[in-house]
């Protein structure tokens, strides 16, 4: 029993990580039709900015409020980089899919190389507040607090995103834009502003994943973002392009599947099962769980 | 018509999309009041014309020629700015946001800096107020059309571009839509694409007929519709001796000016009374 609880909660922790990366990716794709291969870079930027801030930013530190400040700095850095990428590199290339893919793939490679050149290719120990290094007993299972932190953060981000999409003007524009971008323009709305905003939101969420993932794994390395991005893409496709709620369901499915199969089967079988799940969903329901609608 | 300063002047408009030369130098003007109707067989480029005016030609498409609204050239301006400056658009197939509620669809259409005229919209379409919380995707075709027109009327417009507003609607709803457009056209000039001749008869003051990528005829709508011979040669309708399909109860695809199958649809002179009757 305690094993199942532990696997469930660590699986959800993994799902939380996937969701934080996938939600932004999904909105960016749903609204702007951009396959953003540089999204993993936002995660790395968040992780490294948090790590840097914990050591160097006045007031920030590896524990307590200082750590919260360090994470906030990391998230802000992710948002700024996301926004800058949209404004400088993506905006001139809208509707030119091949060029976009090339520029975002190139950017992610260059970003990893830049991080390596600056801080080296080896993993760096990540600042971990004391509380996150302890475990909490849930139904007899000793669950690492860092996993619980990830789950709580993802739940908060999901609620905040849904609230934003449902109750704000920009949220309305994004939901409508995911359905029919051209018609939003034909109502007199400059939809490109929403693109920039979605990149900033996606960048911030991915950066949060980077910071909390760093706490969870205990270290940070330049290539972390890239490996997580593959699963995030799978989550986006399973959930339905453009759907935040779909991403959440799909992230949970993928996280749990991976964790359980890796534990009860051989290690690595979980990843294969995830790809199999992707294939099944694509065959039975090509539009994904939720289809093309931001909040359903 | 030449003494009146037109609200919109299209000159030598040429559109090429994916190798197809759809418009080949279209020139016409839209009068500053009343309804100017854009006619022509299916696929002749009526929708392409409206979309080119709005700057909605798909990327990769090539647009040449000039479009002027008053003193201002519209070419190259982003769509959202044109709309914000008073060019209202009711697209073909309505294009309401299916996942959003009726209220959200209307709220989205509120233009920046204006005060949305909900009174005007709800007076014309009380149904929209009652169904505010319903998802637009679950509305009937007629209700969706009301929403598509309503969201444009929420704002003040200098010119409305309306693309086939009665397409696929039940006869009773066609009449309602025609009535609304008639009331709207009192205040705002309208450039209308419409295939239902009874609606055209009722609303249009001027007519522009497209054929083979160019303007084949333009002038007073009465003149066009009065001359059966002219109508037939330009639009391919009203061939004598064929069975008369009442325009007020269109069978699928048959009440259109030109059907995709045979290109000639009989025009009934008597049975369009329901729609045209005032």
Automatic annotation (TrEMBL), chain A:
**Where is the protein localized?**
Cell membrane
The record gives the membrane topology as: Multi-pass membrane protein
Keyword line = Amino-acid transport, Cell membrane, Membrane, Transmembrane, Transmembrane helix, Transport
Pfam families (UniProt xref) = BPD_transp_2
Source domain of life is Bacteria
Q: Which residues cross the membrane?
A: 6-27, 34-53, 65-89, 101-121, 147-165, 194-217, 229-256, 263-284
What InterPro entries does UniProt report for this protein, alphabetically?
Answer: ABC_transp_permease, BCAA_transport_permease
Family the entry assigns: Belongs to the binding-protein-dependent transport system permease family. LivHM subfamily.
PANTHER family reported for this sequence: ABC TRANSPORTER ATP-BINDING PROTEIN, BRANCHED-CHAIN AMINO ACID TRANSPORT SYSTEM PERMEASE PROTEIN LIVH
Task: Please state what the protein is called.
Answer: Branched-chain amino acid ABC transporter permease
Species: Plantactinospora mayteni
UniProtKB/TrEMBL annotation, chain B:
Asked if the record carries the keyword ATP-binding, the reply is yes
Q: Provide the ABC transporter domain boundaries.
A: 8-237
Source organism superkingdom: Bacteria
Q: Name one GO molecular function term.
A: ATP binding
Q: Does the keyword Signal apply?
A: no
Q: Which UniProt keywords apply?
A: Amino-acid transport, ATP-binding, Nucleotide-binding, Transport
Report the Gene3D superfamilies cross-referenced here.
P-loop containing nucleotide triphosphate hydrolases (3.40.50.300)
Q: What is this protein's record name?
A: ABC transporter ATP-binding protein
């Amino acid at each position: 029993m305690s094993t199942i609880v532990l696997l469930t909660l660590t699986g959800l922790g993994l799902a939380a990580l996937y969701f934080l990366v996938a939600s932004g990716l999904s909105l960016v794709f749903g609204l702007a039709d951009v396959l953003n291969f540089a999204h993993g870079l936002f995660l790395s930027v968040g992780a490294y900015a948090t790590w840097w801030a914990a050591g160097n930013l006045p007031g920030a530190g590896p524990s307590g409020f200082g750590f919260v400040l360090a994470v906030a700095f990391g998230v802000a850095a992710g948002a700024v980089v996301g926004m800058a990428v949209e404004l400088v590199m993506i905006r001139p290339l809208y509707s030119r899919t091949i060029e976009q893919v090339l520029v975002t793939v190139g950017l992610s490679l260059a970003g990893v190389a830049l991080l390596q050149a600056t801080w080296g290719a080896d993993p760096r120990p990540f600042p971990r507040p004391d509380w996150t290094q302890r475990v909490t007993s849930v139904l007899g299972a000793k669950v690492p607090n860092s996993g619980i932190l990830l789950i709580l953060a993802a739940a908060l981000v999901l609620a905040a995103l849904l609230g934003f999409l449902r109750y704000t003007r920009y949220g309305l524009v994004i939901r409508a834009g995911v359905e029919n971008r051209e018609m939003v323009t034909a109502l007199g709305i400059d939809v490109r502003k929403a693109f920039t905003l979605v990149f900033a939101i996606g960048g911030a969420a991915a950066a949060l994943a980077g910071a909390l993932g760093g706490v969870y794994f205990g270290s940070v390395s330049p290539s972390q973002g890239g490996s997580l991005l593959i699963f995030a893409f799978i989550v986006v496709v399973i959930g339905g392009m453009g759907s935040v709620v779909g991403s959440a369901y799909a992230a949970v499915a993928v996280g749990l599947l991976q964790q359980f199969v890796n534990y009860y089967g051989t290690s690595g079988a979980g990843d294969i099962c995830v790809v199999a799940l992707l294939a099944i969903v694509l065959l039975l329901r090509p539009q994904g769980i939720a289809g093309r609608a931001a909040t359903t | 018509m030449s003494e009146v300063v037109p609200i919109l002047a299209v000159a030598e408009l040429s559109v090429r999309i994916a190798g197809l030369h759809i418009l080949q130098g279209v020139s016409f003007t839209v009068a500053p009041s009343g309804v100017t109707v854009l006619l022509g067989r299916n696929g002749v480029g009526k929708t392409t014309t409206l979309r080119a005016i709005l700057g909605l030609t798909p990327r990769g498409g090539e647009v040449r020629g000039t479009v002027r609204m008053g003193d201002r050239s519209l070419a190259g301006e982003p769509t959202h700015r044109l709309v914000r400056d008073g060019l209202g658009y009711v697209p073909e197939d309505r294009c309401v946001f299916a996942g959003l509620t009726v209220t959200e669809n209307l709220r989205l259409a509120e233009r920046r800096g204006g005060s949305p005229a909900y009174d005007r919209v709800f007076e014309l379409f009380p149904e929209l107020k009652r169904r505010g919380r319903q998802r637009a995707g679950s509305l009937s075709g007629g209700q969706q059309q009301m929403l598509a027109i309503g969201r444009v009327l929420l704002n003040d417009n200098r010119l409305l571009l309306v693309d086939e507003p009665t397409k696929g609607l039940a006869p009773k709803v066609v009449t309602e839509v025609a009535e609304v457009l008639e009331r709207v056209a009192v205040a705002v000039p309208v450039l209308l694409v419409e295939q239902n001749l009874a609606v055209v008869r009722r609303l249009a003051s001027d007519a522009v007929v497209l054929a083979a990528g160019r303007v084949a005829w333009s002038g007073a709508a009465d003149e066009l519709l009065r001359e059966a011979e002219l109508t037939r040669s330009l639009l391919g309708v009203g061939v004598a001796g064929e069975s008369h399909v009442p325009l007020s109860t269109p069978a699928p695809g048959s009440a259109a000016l030109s059907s995709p199958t045979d290109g000639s649809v009989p025009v009934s002179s008597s049975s369009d009374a329901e729609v045209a009757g005032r």
